[in-house]
Specification:
Helices cover 81% and strands 0% of the residues. With 208 residues, the protein is an all-alpha fold. The protein is globular, with a radius of gyration of 16 Å.
Amino acid sequence: MTLSKNLWKANEDLARSCLRHPFVQGLAEGTLSSQRFAYYVGQDAFFLQAFARAYTIAGAKAPDWQGFIALHSLADGILEELKLHDTYASRWGVDAMAAKPAPATRRYTDFVLTTAWACDTGLTVVALSPCMRLYAYLGKELARANPPQHRYSDWIRTYSSRDIEILTQKLEYLVDAYASDSHQARETYRYAMTCELDFFQAAYDSVA
């Protein structure tokens, strides 16, 4: 089994916790409050900006041209995802670009950017890949239930799409190409997954 698959398998417990989380279940059922989703959109936009920067830094450090091109292509994918957030933001009256990071968001973005600046391309893509694989997983699991059309259906369609799976596989290919199986890699991956769960919890707790 490849490193990317081993890392995901070792953290499926956290993925299932995210799937069962009331924020994600609220997305699935269409019952999540608009205030919680608006908070999430603003925080996620801030996170994605850091994510795009980390891709760019990792690309600059890539040991070969193929990796450089792939990482900049993934950064372009994040920019497209931010356009989707602009759609959400206008719908819910949120200025996503003006959102100030909450503690859970800042912990995650600081971790991602510190890893990108301080470490090699291999460890950086290990830090980045849990987000992509988790969202592809959540999208597929929510779509599998064939929920009725509701206000969060676009979110489910986006993250269950073939396009997201292709981007995820591209990133995991880089994990397998550049990272080595080490204690640091395993700890980095798990910390990122923990940040994802904390991110959903912070969004849920944003409304009393």
